[in-house]
């Protein structure tokens, strides 16, 4: 049974999509069958994985709103073991179209069910808000990775996040685990970034991944070429850091089984 991991943070621009694409790709190069689902109408994970706008008929919208089997929307990528369910602008309407339907938070959970047997990991790239799409992701997920940008207000955002996770556990998904908090866009040259990392480790302890994602220009360039970092520049520090993250995620699972 595949594990479903949501990459979520209400805050915008913290590295969710970069993490979703590159974690999925790093698992895939380890020959672990991985499905990336793009739940953001901005569709950045879709284009960043090399899928062009208008080149596909079905996306996650069709599964969520029109209840088509998710299998019909799965596309291949340049990596044999990485598949994707794309998103497009239609998805922006999904929040409104689903709003009055009973069980609206559980549509994704229901449609993913069929695919769990076909993948070891299903990675969900969430939009920056706590709307219905994000709630669907958190209701469907076994665990959540929360990317946090190493900046001054990081710690304040984390307390809001805790409240959100507590509410989700009470309401939608009792068994939602924290896979880990991931520090992103770390610039080792600044004292501020070092201070933020040490504060977050003090506050969140072992729930913070050992791997820290550096600020790395190659990570910002890769999506415009429609490639995960591993195919764009495998020797970059960005590539190395996401491979380390994939290792940590796989190790977490070995620990919890053994
Ligand atoms: P949104 O909330 O809009 O969905 P997001 O949380 O998904 O944003 P990303 O799109 O992954 O964030 O990243 C925001 C911007 O920062 C992008 O331009 C991305 O290329 C860049 N970026 C992300 N991570 C890094 C990094 N480690 N080094 C350099 N640039 C990065
Ligand atoms: Mg994003």
The global form is globular
Our count of helices gives 11
Mean pLDDT over the full residue set: 94
Strand-and-helix sequence, N→C? EHEHHEEHHEHEHEHHHH
Bound molecules: adenosine-5'-triphosphate, magnesium ion
E-strand count: 7
**Beta-strand proportion:** 5-15%
> How far is the first residue's CA from the last residue's CA?
16 Å
The stretches of 5 or more residues where confidence is low (pLDDT under 50) are: none
- Order of strands across the main sheet: 3-4-2-5-1-6-7
Summary keywords:
single chain, 258 residues, alpha/beta, 7-stranded mixed beta sheet, 11 helices, binds adenosine-5'-triphosphate, binds magnesium ion
Structure notes:
It is globular and about 50 Å long. Helix content is 42%, strand content 14%. The model has no long low-confidence stretch (mean pLDDT 94). Strand 3 (75-76) and strand 4 (82-85) form a beta hairpin. It contains 11 helices and 7 strands. With 258 residues, it is an alpha/beta fold. It has a 7-stranded mixed β-sheet, sandwiched between helices. Helix 1 (16-29) packs across helix 11 (237-257). Adenosine-5'-triphosphate (ATP) binds at residues 12-18, 40, 44, 128, 184-185, 213, 215-216, 219-220, 223, 238.
């Amino acid at each position: 049974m595949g594990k479903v991991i949501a990459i979520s943070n209400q805050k915008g621009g913290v590295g969710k999509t970069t993490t979703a694409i590159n974690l999925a790709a790093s698992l895939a190069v380890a020959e672990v069958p991985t499905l990336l689902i793009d739940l953001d109408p901005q569709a950045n994970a879709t284009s960043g994985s090399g899928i062009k706008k208008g080149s596909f008929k079905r996306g996650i919208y069709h599964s969520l709103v029109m209840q088509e089997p998710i299998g019909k929307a799965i596309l291949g990528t340049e990596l044999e073991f990485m598949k994707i369910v794309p998103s497009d602008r239609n998805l922006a309407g999904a929040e409104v179209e689903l709003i009055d339907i009973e069980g609206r938070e559980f549509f994704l959970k229901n449609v993913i069910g069929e695919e769990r047997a076909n993948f070891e990991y299903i990675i969900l790239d969430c939009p920056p808000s706590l709307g219905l799409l994000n709630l669907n992701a958190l209701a469907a997920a076994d665990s959540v990775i929360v990317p946090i940008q190493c900046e001054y207000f990081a710690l304040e955002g984390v307390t809001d996040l805790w409240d959100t996770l507590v509410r989700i556990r009470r309401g939608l998904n009792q068994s939602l685990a924290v896979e880990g908090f991931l520090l992103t866009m770390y610039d080792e040259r600044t004292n501020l970034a070092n201070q933020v990392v040490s504060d977050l480790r003090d506050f969140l302890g072992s729930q913070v991944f050992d791997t820290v994602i550096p600020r790395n220009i190659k990570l910002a360039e890769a999506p415009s070429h429609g490639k995960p970092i591993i195919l764009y520049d495998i020797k970059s520090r960005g590539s190395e850091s996401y491979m380390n993250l994939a290792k940590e995620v796989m190790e977490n699972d070995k620990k919890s089984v053994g």
